Amino acid sequence: MTNEETVQQQLTAAFPFLASAVRAVRARRIFADVEYPHFKEVLEYLIREQKFVNLCTMTGLDEGATLGVIYHLATMEGMTVNLHTHVPKENPLLQSVMAYFPSAEAYERELKDLLGFNVQGLPEGNRYPLTDDWPDNEFPLRKDWKPKWASPEEGK
Amino acid sequence: MAQSNSFKIPIGPQHPALKEPESFSVALRGEKILGVDIRLGYNHRGIEKACEERTFLQDVYLIERVCGICSHSHSTCFVQAVEEIANLDVPKRGLYIRTLFAELERVHSHLLWLGVAGHEIGFDTLLMYTWKDREVVMDILAMLSGNRVNYGMNTIGGVRRDISPEQIQEVLKGMDILEEKTKYYIEVASQEATIINRLSGVGVVSKEDAIRLGAVGPTARASGVDRDMRRDDPYAAYPDVQFDVILDDHNDVYGRTVVRLKELMESYKIIRQLLKKIPDGPIAIKAPRKIPAGEAFSRYEAPRGEDVHYVKSNGTEKPERVKVRAPTLANVQVVKHMLKDRYLADMPIVIAAIDPCFSCTDRSIALHRHDSRKRDVVIWETVRLAGIEWYKKNGIDFTALNKRFMARLQK
Amino acid sequence: MAALLNMLVFPGFLFLSVFGMYCSFLERKLYARLQSRIGPPWFQPYADFVKLVAKENIMPEDANPVMFSLMPVFALTAVTTAVLYIPIWGTQALFSFTGDIIVVLYLLTLPTVAFFIGGWYSTSLYARIGAVRTLGQLFAYEVPLFMSVLAPAILAESWSLSGISLYYSQHPWYCLFNAIGFVISLVAMLAKLEKAPFDIPEAETEIGGGCFTEYSGRLLAFFKLALMIEMVVGGALLSSVFLPFGLASGPVVGFILFLVKSVIVVGLFAVAHALLARLRIDQILDFCWKLMIPAALVQVVVNLIIKMVIR
Fold first, then answer.
1. B38, B231, B308 member nearest A72 (Cβ)
2. Would an 8 Å CB–CB cutoff place A72 in contact with chain B?
3. How distant is the Cα of B317 from the closest Cα of chain A, in angstroms?
4. Would C6 be classed as within a structural domain?
5. Are 3 or more Cβ–Cβ pairs between B and A shorter than 8 Å?
6. C1 within some domain
7. Residue B49 and residue A82: Cβ atoms within 8 Å?
8. Which residues on adjacent β-strands are paired with residue B294?
9. B41 — contact with chain A (CB < 8 Å)?
10. Which of A43, A52, B181, B348 has the fewest CB atoms within 10 Å distance of its CB?
């Protein structure tokens, strides 16, 4: 059995409700979906039992009615798991994972600025990456936000 | 937190020590650093949003321009993700050429860094020497791809240009020259007292802290963290070549110098193996315009560390989401830790030692109008128009070149 | 009349400026060549000076205008005066009196103080840090410099530069006893001139220009000229104390030898600049107090012993 399949089996054994939500796509690539209430325990399991000690980055997604986040985690040996979760768009409350990964600060600030997540637990600090005088309620990465004058040239 | 006798000095956004704008607000007492407040975002250009508005093929060129020195890293990482979603089998020769450029880019980047490090500690001679050698690798890159940076080699499904046997010979000759020069630099770095004095004990990060704070690339490997995407998560032609991952246990800037120097030697080794083994065959496979729905996560060992791209497609010809995390964003968060209790004089070299590429890290231009007290975000078109107007006033007319742009404005 | 001519033309201001700028060109050319670059043409420092003088003089709002404008002139005056006591074309300087070697050393300290005051009164953060560093470096190199320059005076039993050069031209081989002192004073002079590896007060990659950050135009031109003249005068001081051979062979030969010696010293500075990285201020203080001062003490003791032996 290859490594990623081992991880997949162990993960679904520990959390039976994830049974159909974990896919070992190819070598070193696992994609998993988890509902946000269960997110913390799955994350802790992955960090402590499966040794996913690196947070590569966090991707925010505009999924229409919800805002999704993918936590891209990795082990020291090169295995990755892409843990996807989502929160409702009207109340996009997210708990910070800085306690597990200090480097999450930059990624979480990015989620705040560009997608409008409400991340709880961030320390005081400068915003990133937008400017201080960026207007409120303008979240550039949301699908309904259009930059002015955007009319892309057609490719050949 | 201000204590008595301490004052804050701004380093950046404009500063001779910084090649790109970012702001470090340093609280000092005398020469000792009490704390650093880092402000990023000066180079933010909204690339991820721009990617969603363009086709996959256009995005290859856009992503390449995230950074000048790691351009191939970004475009390869992106293209790999797209090829995984579309289940494309890139021909071997294409993979080899891609890897050749990856390693040439690494050589270029490390030589550039050596020069910058020398300049930051006041040792301009090292800068002049290494940048002269860098011309060798830039000439090779220009010969193979037509450009010194931003090579435009990648396309979805392979590479765009082939290399000829004569070019291969030129590359091998260049490698011989550079290998000798690098051996000399390794000797200098290990024996020159002033260099060792300035670089040792500076920017110290222990192995545990490096892992905990998420350091990547040579910055992490200099603290003994054994991570290299080329070996741990092999891509392109790396499974076919044999090389060592360079680790060091100095934990400081000197270690980072040693790691980069030795990685140069490994790159020469890899390039020689690639050129010896390169198979014949096509260099690319035709890719569909509409990429099927799916997602992929791609990792690449850029010269500065681990570069990750996440791409999600929705079955159209434009991506649903593109996420870029450049290595410098991971490393810059370690800088605060490195500068604690150090001296102001160490700041430039510590920041330079993570080999910062802030163009990779940020990706909006906020212009402050000097004539009004209000600051607003000026859009690109306004800036461009202002430029055209200014030149017209000074007798040069660009409107002919900008027909389409002017037509859009008159809409 | 003659005195005025001496002060303004030769060996005063005009000669020092021209020769100082030429030495600056030599230093930059050699430095460039060592880095496999081409380097500037011979008229570069002259062109730079003319250009700077023609530029606008911008003073920071908070700066003290009197101090800010006075310091460059002050520095320039100090170094130009120092040369009057240094023997250039023979064993006799233009003016000499017992104790003038101390006066020359102090006149050479004045520019450093002027840089500090100028930087401090600029009120910009970078200038103040540079000013403090200049002063810190002063604490490092002053003692070794003084001790090593005064050691040959002990042997010569004279406190006047002319007297010293007279003594050594009569006993040329005694110069060899001062070899340690020569090396120490060369290194200390590097520190005084704020040249690499001791150029931290002006470290552009850290504080963007140090004491001179806020200076521009005419005042900056004067500061830079003061530095160049300081290089010549410092070199002249060292060569008259440590390398006084040939001074007795007549004014023309003596003068030519002076030029040659100065050029050699400048060459040594350029080589040091090219070969060494910049040291941090704490490393400079360590180096000077823990290494140079003991060595200078050794030199003084050696000279005392030899003096007793000669008697």
1. B308
2. yes
3. 11
4. no
5. yes
6. no
7. no
8. B313
9. yes
10. B181
Spatial contact of C180 and C123, defined as CB atoms under 8 Å apart = no
Residue B246 neighbours by CB distance under 10 Å: 18
Burial class (CB in 10 A: 0-12, 13-18, 19+), B35: middle
Q: Is A54 within 8 Å of chain B by CB?
A: yes
Q: How many CB atoms lie within 10 A of CB C285?
A: 16
Q: Do A76 and B37 touch (CB under 8 A)?
A: no
Residues of C in contact with B15 (CB under 8 A): 208
Is C41 inside any structural domain?
yes
Contact B120 C281 (CB under 8 A): no
Alpha-carbon distance C297 to A111, whole Å? 65
Is residue C239 over pLDDT 90?
no
C18: part of which helix (H) or strand (E)? helix C13-34
Q: Which long-range contacts (CB under 8 A, 24 or more apart) does B190-196 make?
A: B190/B258, B192/C277, B194/B123, B194/C197, B194/C276, B194/C277, B194/C278, B194/C279, B195/B121, B195/B123, B195/B126, B195/C277, B196/B254
| 8 A C-beta contact, residue C297 and residue C143 | no
Please state the ipTM of this predicted complex. 0.89
Chain C residues with CB inside 8 Å of B118's CB? 277
**pTM (global) more than 0.90:** no
Q: State pLDDT tens for residues A50-108.
A: 899 999 999 999 998 999 999 999 998 889 999 999 999 999 999 999 999 988 988 99
Element (H, E) at B154: strand B154-155
C5 located within any domain: no
Query: How many Cβ pairs within 8 Å bridge chains B and C?
Result: 73
Which residues, at least 6 apart from C113, have a Cβ–Cβ distance to it below 8 Å?
Answer: C138
| Residue ranges making up the domain that contains C36 | 12-310
Per the structure, the count of domains in chain C is: 1
Interface contact flag, A78 B308, Cβ < 8 Å: no
Instruction: Reply yes or no on whether the pLDDT at B211 is more than 50.
Output: yes
Which of A64-68, B276-280, C88-92, C126-130 is predicted with the least confidence, judged by mean pLDDT?
C88-92
